[in-house]
Amino acid sequence: MAPRFRFQTLLDYKSRLVDDLRLEMARKQQTLQRLQQERRRLQETRSRVADELQTKMQKGLSIQAVRQTYQYLDFLEQALVNLDERIRQAEDQVADVRQRLAEALKERKTFEKLREYAMAELRTRLQKREAEALDDLNIARYFHSEPRS
Question: Which of 37, 87, 133, 134 gets the highest tally of CB atoms within 10 A of its CB?
Answer without folding.
Answer: 87
